[in-house]
């Protein structure tokens, strides 16, 4: 049991898994919501599919019970990290409505649903961190639904900041640059030449490591002076 708790989505791999390790090292108990069980010691797993709009109905009771079990006093600090994301290859010319809606459900609507479950039990000192993208404020071709959803996530964070005035709960959107994760590698088909080309667009000429993003998320979650902030963590992108 702990009086500090991390509730994270999509923690089974990549940035999410690194964030779990970072928070555990600081004494946080952890609840992970994802389709794929994480199988990590000390982590409570709630298996849900956030692409289904009804996931919240099915998962709310389990999540509440897991929080109460690990924080019986009900007075601890809860950090929510909205990390789960869906990236599809699509274009504004061809994207199907059903596919577009699925990406928006996972990347934007599910975070709002999770907030509504947890906010009634979140105390002052708690935090909500959205994991955006370098594509939250720019765009690339053939990622229409993802780009749109990550722009929308910034709007959701800013609305969160305003709606929680006086609550003592702060919020930020951390926007990772191109990070060496399974999602990125799958998106480029594992093509090392493409990954090298991506890295060449960064001032450090490399991809970001998930552990670096975990550190950035931890700062966003624990430093209330950052509130309503869009925090770019991208090693400095080269403007061309």
Notes on the protein architecture:
This protein has 7 helices and 7 strands, in the order E-H-E-E-H-E-H-E-H-E-H-H-H-E. It is α/β, with parallel strands linked by helices and 240 residues long. It has one domain: Rossmann fold (3-Layer(aba) Sandwich). A 7-stranded parallel sheet has the order 3-2-1-4-5-6-7, sandwiched between helices. The longest helix is centred in the middle third of the chain and has 22 residues, at 97-118. The mean pLDDT is 94.
Short description:
The chain is built from seven helices and seven strands. It has helices at 14-25, 55-70, 97-118, 144-163, 182-187, 192-199, 210-222; strands at residues 4-9, 29-34, 43-47, 77-82, 127-131, 170-176, 229-233.
Question: Keywords for this structure?
Answer:
about 40% helix; about 15% strand; seven-stranded parallel β-sheet; about 240 residues; 7 strands; single chain; alpha/beta; globular; Rossmann fold
Alpha plus pi helix count: 7
- What is CATH's topology name? Rossmann fold
- Give the ordered list of helices and strands: EHEEHEHEHEHHHE
**Gyration radius, rounded:** 17 Å
Tally of domains: 1
Compile the SSE list and pairings:
Elements: E1 4-9, H1 14-25, E2 29-34, E3 43-47, H2 55-70, E4 77-82, H3 97-118, E5 127-131, H4 144-163, E6 170-176, H5 182-187, H6 192-199, H7 210-222, E7 229-233
Parallel strand pairs: 1-2, 1-4, 2-3, 4-5, 5-6, 6-7
Helix pairs in contact: 1-7, 2-3, 3-4
């Amino acid at each position: 049991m702990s009086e500090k708790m991390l509730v994270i989505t999509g923690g089974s791999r990549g940035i999410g898994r690194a964030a779990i390790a970072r928070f555990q090292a600081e004494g946080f108990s952890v609840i992970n919501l994802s389709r794929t069980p994480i199988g990590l010691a000390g982590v409570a797993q709630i298996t849900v599919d956030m692409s289904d709009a009804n996931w919240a109905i099915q998962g709310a009771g389990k999540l509440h019970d897991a929080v109460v079990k690990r924080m019986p006093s009900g007075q601890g600090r809860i950090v929510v990290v909205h990390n789960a994301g869906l990236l599809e290859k699509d274009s504004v010319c061809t994207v199907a409505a059903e596919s577009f809606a699925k990406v928006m459900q996972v990347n934007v609507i599910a975070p709002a649903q999770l907030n509504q479950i947890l906010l009634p039990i979140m105390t002052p000192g708690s935090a909500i961190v959205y994991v955006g993208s370098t594509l939250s404020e720019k765009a690339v071709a053939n990622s229409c639904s993802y780009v749109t959803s990550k722009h929308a996530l910034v709007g959701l964070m800013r609305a969160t900041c305003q709606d929680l005035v006086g609550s003592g709960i702060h919020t930020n959107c951390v926007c990772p640059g191109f990070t060496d994760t399974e999602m990125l590698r799958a998106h480029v088909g594992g093509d090392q030449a493409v990954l090298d080309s991506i890295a060449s667009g960064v001032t450090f000429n490399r991809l970001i490591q998930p552990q670096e993003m975990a550190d950035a998320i931890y700062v966003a979650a624990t430093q209330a002076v950052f509130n309503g902030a869009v925090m770019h963590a991208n090693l400095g992108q080269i403007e061309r």
